[in-house]
Amino acid sequence: MRRSLAVAVAAALCGLIAAPALGQNAPAAAAAPTKLKPKAPTDASTVTVTVTNSRKADLVELQAAESGSVSWKKVLGALKTGKQAPAKLPQNYNCRVDLHGTFADGQSMDATDVDVCAQKTLNLTD
Known about the structure:
Layout: H1 2-30, E1 46-53, E2 59-66, E3 73-76, E4 84-90, E5 96-103, E6 108-115, E7 121-124
């Protein structure tokens, strides 16, 4: 009798332990976490300027770096002569950047220490 009571208690305990465990897993599986979209990067470290290509040749690429830095970053791709487009330029603590542009005619241009916070337009000229 004691043995059957012990088996009955053990079975009951297993049922009580197993049932909540299954109950806990079922809602978790039903409410599986959904994939969250990654947050878009903030543009707090960039400033948008309008670039106008007033040269006779098409712009191939415009690069920018914080003034005095050698870490160049492409900020604008191809831009036909006479056209304009927005470019996001790095905005460091003093808003100064160096620019390097290459053109379809093989020419290039460099501008140093441009204040992109004060100048919201860049006009590329011959």
